[in-house]
């Protein structure tokens, strides 16, 4: 099938066939990571700008590796060291980059909807969302889907629980959409104080009050990071109590389950060390999938080749 999208703002308009096209291509890229000649020429002559307004390790590094492996010219544009820190507007920065002849921008911003705003400013440039506010993180969900699919195969009817701080997570909505579209039965659990008021808009099967029971019944246990920087808001009594009621310990995970986390992990809070490092953990595989998933996204949005 041919691919017509040049932007990746979110996953809301993706259907199952879109995810299947992505998975086929991403799996090929992931297999190529083990080959000596993994650097390709698909995006030779294309220039990609990584424009990150928030700190990032995994997302930014894996995008940069993906871009280089596909042969693109890569520019890392840090807002703190650019004219933005001198008072230049994002609009003027965007137009400056466009005038330089760039082909794509990978963007992370703390305000929800900024990738779409940038897309309106630069209709001829491919915009890829590296995370916007607490709204969306599409490539994280795609790499998660890749890891789960390769381990489990079909996700039809598979029970999945997403546990933790859904309210402040840019990952939760994207993950729920991706896995639900591929057939998983997705539930949320966590303290009520960390659940959004519009939980129904996430399209999940249910909210589970008892997190421990939900984890034991799930084939996929997806743990969201507890954002320590928000704990001064008193959203739950303590990290120790959070772990006791909502964190994943060894006894909470069934033998055939997989454990996932978008990182960085808080050991002893949302996840025990023997779970994070245990045989059920896909956490390091998710990191590896990140490069392949972003290679696939870049190829689809910038290459537009028939699959």
Keyword list:
307 residues; alpha/beta; Rossmann fold; 2 domains; 5-stranded parallel β-sheet; 4-stranded parallel β-sheet; 9 strands; globular; pyrimidine biosynthesis; Asp_carbamoyltransf_Asp/Orn-bd; transferase; Asp_carbamoyltransf
How would you describe the overall organization of this protein?
There is one protein chain. The chain is of the alpha/beta class. The protein folds into 2 domains: 135 residues, Aspartate/ornithine carbamoyltransferase (Rossmann fold, 3-Layer(aba) Sandwich); 149 residues, Aspartate/ornithine carbamoyltransferase (Rossmann fold, 3-Layer(aba) Sandwich), CATH 3.40.50.1370. The chain has 10 helices and 9 strands. The strands form 2 sheets. A 5-stranded parallel sheet has the order 7-6-5-8-9, sandwiched between helices. α4 links the parallel β3 and β4. α2 packs across α10. The protein is globular. The mean pLDDT is 90.
Unreliable sequence segments: none
- The H-and-E topology, N to C, reads as HEHEHEHEHEHEEHEHEHH
Proportion of beta-strand residues: 5-15%
CATH topology heading of the largest domain: Rossmann fold
Distance between the termini: 5 Å
Mean pLDDT: 90
CATH superfamily of the largest domain: Aspartate/ornithine carbamoyltransferase
Q: What CATH first level of the largest domain would be assigned?
A: Alpha Beta
Helix content: 25-40%
> What is the overall number of helices?
10
| Overall shape | globular
Q: Compute the gyration radius: what is it?
A: 19 Å
Strand arrangement, major sheet: 7-6-5-8-9
How many distinct folded domains?
Answer: 2
Q: In the CATH classification, which architecture of the largest domain applies?
A: 3-Layer(aba) Sandwich
Sheet with the most strands, sense and barrel status: 5 strands, parallel
User: Structural class of the helix and strand makeup?
Assistant: alpha/beta
How many strands in all? 9
């Amino acid at each position: 099938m041919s691919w017509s999208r040049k932007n990746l703002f979110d996953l809301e308009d993706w259907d199952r066939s879109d995810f299947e096209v992505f998975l086929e291509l991403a799996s090929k890229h992931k297999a190529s990571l083990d080959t000596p000649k993994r650097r390709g020429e698909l995006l030779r002559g294309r220039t990609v700008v990584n424009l990150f307004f928030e700190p990032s390790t995994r997302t930014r590094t894996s995008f940069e590796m993906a871009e280089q492996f596909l042969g693109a010219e890569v520019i890392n544009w840090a807002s703190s060291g650019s004219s933005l820190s001198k008072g230049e507007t994002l609009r003027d920065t965007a137009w400056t980059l466009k005038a330089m002849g760039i082909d794509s921008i990978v963007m992370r911003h703390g305000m929800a909807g900024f990738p779409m705003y940038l897309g309106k400013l630069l209709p001829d440039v491919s915009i890829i969302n590296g995370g916007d506010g607490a709204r969306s993180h599409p490539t994280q969900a795609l790499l998660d889907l890749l890891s789960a699919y390769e381990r489990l195969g079909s996700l039809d009817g598979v029970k999945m629980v997403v546990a933790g701080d859904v309210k402040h997570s840019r990952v939760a909505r994207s993950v729920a959409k991706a896995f639900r579209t591929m057939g998983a039965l997705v539930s949320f659990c966590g303290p009520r104080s960390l659940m959004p008021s519009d939980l129904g808009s996430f399209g999940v099967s249910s909210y589970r009050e008892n997190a421990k029971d939900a984890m034991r019944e799930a084939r996929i246990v997806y743990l969201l990071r507890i954002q320590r920087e928000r704990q001064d808001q008193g959203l739950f009594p303590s990290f120790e109590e959070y772990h006791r009621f909502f964190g994943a310990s060894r006894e909470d995970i069934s033998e055939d389950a997989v454990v996932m986390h978008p990182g960085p992990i808080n050991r002893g809070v949302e996840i025990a060390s023997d779970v994070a490092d245990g045989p059920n953990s896909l956490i390091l595989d998710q990191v590896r999938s990140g490069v392949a998933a972003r290679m696939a996204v870049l190829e689809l949005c910038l290459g537009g080749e028939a699959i």
